[in-house]
Amino acid sequence: MQNIYHQYTYNYPHKHTYRQLYRPIKLETAWAKEDLKNLFAYLHLPFCEMRCGFCNLFTISNPKNGVSNYLSALKREAQTYKSLLSNYSFEAYAIGGGTPTFLSINELAIMLSIFKNDLGVPINSRYGSIEASPKSLTLDKIQLIEQYGITRVSMGIQSWLKEETKLLGRPQSNIEVTKTVEQLIDSSIPELNLDLIYGIHGQTPDSWLYSLEKTVEYLPTEIFLYPLYQRPLTGLSKMQKNSTDNRLALYRIGRDFLLSKGYKQNSMRSFRRDDVSSILNQHQLTKDGTIGLGAGARSYTKELHYSSDYAVSRKATKTIIHNYSMNKDFSKIQYGIYLNKNEQQRRYLIKGLMDGGKINVKDFEKTFGYAVFDIPIIQEWLEKKWLMVQEDNLGLTILGMELEDYLGPLLFSTNVKTLMSTFELH
């Protein structure tokens, strides 16, 4: 096992498997067999104040215009769901991007109102998260988030050293970052997550520990540690800065440090203070039923995953966002992938085991008609001590978590790997 860093695998199948459907399908037909209770809602805002060098998300930086048209399209799409699907309800939600707090205070208020009133997400009474950046999250936006009762703010710090963030293509002021973090700590928002990245060109154990220590000073609810990936068409891939791959060594330093500071490891990436418990139900990790709003947002039924088209380059992404913003009819699905029973099982395993989940062995057998232990690769992983059984649950060991980005892709089907390899990235 030479390289354990293959790719993030927290969902399945990958968006690179999506294709134009042979025939468009009506929205109400796609959801006709689904349990519409306790859905997950996701809203995507594909705009940022800058595009980081490592980013391959569906977003563009500093759009000169078009935000108001995009918000109008969000409203039309939300109202389409509300008119065609009846008696649905949401258990939890997330607002991501891009950077939702890129919007002005008035635009952010409009977007949250659409999510709550037009789609019908009870923001104030359900567990929900919103992504933010230090540069764009102002005090008045924090106050708006407080008013809506959003449970969690997730913000990327990446590093507390200017030379490292510059190498990430993300120049930022530590004074600005400190001010924003302190405002969040002083707010009534219950949960704060801060992201850090390891594997930056020239990063050392000492510089990594500095960022870890600085982050822990604020006692955030969660800390996510992300290995750096250089993906095609991103700024880092064009810079082609190569250095010794020390990601595993830095990961272990970060893991051991956070465990020593009272954080509990939930996955390869997620560390949560063990004096707080998440109010997001665990079964949401393995169930389907997600309504995604916005260009780039993915929606999931058991048999169909769908979204708008996907791109990384600014030109192609801008075209997709423009087409979404001008769309007057959101009643048909045209781009996605169908999942047969085998793909549904693989999805269940990946969502259950990767990034903080567990598989309930009784629920798996009830869902698929046979025991999870009958799957050869599961037996292999148990023998290698990558998995463990606790009562009725199957989950990754501490060694298994270390290998998460290697293990996840081993569960991909041949068809999914073929579709991913033939996807035309633009």
Notes on the protein architecture:
- This protein has 426 residues and is an alpha/beta fold.
- The protein has a domain at 15-285: tm_1862 like domain (pyruvate-formate lyase- activating enzyme).
- Helix content is 37%, strand content 20%.
- The protein contains 16 helices and 18 strands.
- It has a 9-stranded mixed sheet with strand order 10-11-9-8-7-6-5-2-12. Strands 1-15-14-13 form a 4-stranded antiparallel sheet. The chain has a 3-stranded antiparallel sheet with strand order 16-18-17.
- A hairpin with a 2-residue loop joins strand 17 (387-390) and strand 18 (393-396).
- Helix 2 (67-84) crosses helix 10 and helix 3 (105-118) packs parallel to helix 4.
- The longest helix is centred in the N-terminal third of the chain and has 18 residues, at 67-84.
- The chain is globular, with a radius of gyration of 21 Å.
- 42% of the residues are buried.
- The model is unreliable at 281-286 (pLDDT under 50).
